[in-house]
Amino acid sequence: MDFKYIVLILCLLLLAFLLYKEISRANKGRLVWRVLASLIAVICFALLIIPVKYETSLRRNANEITLLTAGINPDSIAKLKGQKYSLASADLVNAKTILIPDLSYFLATHKDIKKLNIYGNGLSDEELKSVNGYEINFHPAAKPNGVISANWQHKIKTTEQLNVQGIYQNTSNEKVKILLKGLGNSIDSLSIEPKSDKSFSFNTQPKQTGKAIYQLIALQGRDTLSKEPIPFLAGEQSPMKVLILASFPDFEYKFLKKWLFENKYPLAFRSQISKNKYSTDFLNMDSLSLNRINASSLKKFDVLIIDEEELAALGGSERAAIDNAVNSGMGIVIRILNAKSITPISGRFGRFESPVPKDKQLGLLLKDENYKFSKLPLEQTLFLKASQNDQPLVADGSGKILVNSTIKGSGKILISSLVSTFNWLLSGKTSDYTTYWSEILSKAARKKPEIQSVKTTPQFPVINEKIRFVVDLGESGKIPKLKIDSLKLAPRQNIELPFQWDTTFWPTRDGWNNLSVNQSTQSFFIYKNTDWQALRNQQKINFTQLFIDKLKNQQRKTTITDISFQEDVSPWWFFAGFLLASAFLWYESRILTI
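That's the Aerotolerance regulator N-terminal domain-containing protein sequence above. Prediction below.
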């Protein structure tokens, strides 16, 4: 028997019992009112259990629907008129909506739909592809509270800095503190004022190698608002071979040679003693003849560091060999001391002199990474001019350039007017010295083509959601063998780029996972569904809005009609009737009969 019929039978029995009690009561005063109140109480009680619907109509487009997505405020759902649809990802427990398990399939089977009214955070990339060509009205959810943008290097060398950058959006009325934590230690922190957005940039040099997970923590008083993982891989410095040609062995060369040796760079060092007589050192590599610089000797190095005086003292054939080596991909770093150029290659860069600052302290900034170094106790007067084809690398606090670079053939030329970086080491600022020279060498070094590379999308893959791998095999035309654990993946070849293959995968385990590509292994990180929630919500809002702007919402011919649908009568009306009737019966039996 249907549940509502059971309720009706029980309520009828209850009504019969109440009527019997009223009729058999000795005091017959107000009998009609008591019978009426009993009838109302039982009817209202029954209607509290059995929902009552009524037919209504709404004048709207017959071929448009209201689609609810994750992030919609539950209080605003009741204000939306008409039939409502929702995606499974919206997770709307109590809302009365029609569930759409797969949006693309739903739209393909409902050809009459031409317009979507989307509420909440919006749609994912795959879902946006399925609504291409539809007319869309997007009503985004409120701004998420938390980190809405974040980026860091997923692979670094042990000599490089890990740079964590992003934007925190504080929509609350209280101050929020964000903290970068690694291996149990607090690295850096920043406070975010109420009702404000603020960019952050945290830098650190990890000490360990291999897989690591740092954390970006948001605190409000004693409460932890979020704890976001920052996974990365720290690898050993690749063997970048460095050649130093010095006109004289100053302190800058002495400390640089020691640092390169300790960080396992293969290094050949030549210093001039007198005319055509040299002192040579070979660290982390075999010795070779450096009496004359030629093409064969330069092929063995990725970076040449030389001062302008030594470059001018070289013979014409040696300078020509260096010029050809740079065109072929080798990088060169030229140290300058004078405002006037004395070689053609260093003359490519303009320079000028400027007065010494009052505090005689030089503050430096990495232009690309916005990294601020500790101040150097230098009376720096020589600076560089940047042309349209240059890329400045290091500047002071006022923007005057101290290290500049330009492309020449397949290689790079770097020029530096900063001659005493060893002062960082003398003052205990080892991380600044390491960051500076790691950046200079990586920018200048000969670029080695990768045999294969793997890219993953999206930026923050989570469990049970599709992840896409793009494998670049260089010049190899063979089909790659892709495998995760014991599961073999089927690659698909790019028609336009035959050396590129892609495949998809639905991860079921969060944390570090391994993708086997032929004979090598690539590690990738899968996040939990609760990780970086504010950022992923903001990305959805941004992507949906950008998609709609590109779509330009071409108006379609739609038919305005009266759409009939059923609405539930609010149970509060029946609760109020039951409460009033019960109150009257109690009041009459307890007060009026006295």
